[in-house]
Amino acid sequence: MYLVYVVKVMIIVTQPPVNPADINTIQGKYPNKPPLPAVPGNEGVGEVIAIGSNIKHLNVGDRVIPNGSHLGTWRTHANYTSEELMKVPKEVGTIEASMLNVNPCTAYRMLKDFVSLKPGDTVIQNGGNSAVGQMVIQLCKLWNYKSVSVVRDRPNIQELKDYLISLGADEIFTENEVKKTQTFKSKKLPSPKLALNCICGQNALEVLRHLAHGGIMVTYGGMSREPLTVPTSALIFKDITIKGFWMTAWTKANMNSLERESMFSELGALFKDKKLKAPPHKLVPFCQYQEAVTNALNMNGRTGIKYILDMTKP
């Protein structure tokens, strides 16, 4: 039996995605360290099953997602304050709703906040097959930007390229191909004004070399576990700027802003209208969580699947 406080909302959690950051938090390696005892999980979608008498903007039956970080979604039931939850339109698919407040928002903010992009401008990124990378490709297509993605080579590379092109990518290169490409020198595409980096190491260095004069590289991950190396010439002669982005910090700084409200409204509408789609994914019963955890930490970048815990099958 669950105790429901007057100021609380009780939900059934159904489908929390598993991210590397979730595992790093459990390991104590992530900057955010929730006080113990703690429940893992940043993302997820749930259904309201009970509300306190003072709750005005939520009703029983509403679908909700966490309105913040480290609220603990790897569980079947939870009590939250109403401010900790955000209502999601029922027209948005369950899978899309479950991952709405991390990967799509990360892609959205990086495309909006660092460079004033215009239709026809080019964005280059590594990790193009990641969940964020696929959102970047789709948003670039919708906003009329050109997108170039770098992915790691694999046996089914042409299948992956075809899939990413079907999402709207203009060019897909392997790490070896991006070293040799003449795409920008030949003016086939304008030199990128914005580079998005989630890999670091040599991969990021090759991406950096293609940035236009005055371009910006935004780093939001380091899946290679190697440092980001920046040539002196890029700083002096090309006036390249290096910045970092952390969605959690942006959310904390903009929790009640109109800008955040507008972002969720736009992303929700795009998912509802099927103009954005979730990456390939696999639902894993919670009792088989080891598969999701192991693959979430896979560092070779070749799994190609977003793992989501199915809390309806604990």
From TrEMBL:
GO terms for biological process: fatty acid biosynthetic process. Keywords: Fatty acid biosynthesis, Fatty acid metabolism, Lipid biosynthesis, Lipid metabolism, Mitochondrion, NADP, Oxidoreductase, Transit peptide. It catalyses: a 2,3-saturated acyl-[ACP] + NADP(+) = a (2E)-enoyl-[ACP] + NADPH + H(+). GO terms for cellular component: mitochondrion. Its EC number is 1.3.1.104. It comes from the Eukaryota. Its main location: mitochondrion. One of its GO terms (molecular function) is enoyl-[acyl-carrier-protein] reductase (NADPH) activity. Residues 3-309 form the Enoyl reductase (ER) domain. Pfam families: ADH_N, ADH_zinc_N. It is found in: Mitochondrion. SMART domains: PKS_ER (SM00829). Belongs to the zinc-containing alcohol dehydrogenase family. Quinone oxidoreductase subfamily. This is Enoyl-[acyl-carrier-protein] reductase, mitochondrial. It comes from Eufriesea mexicana.
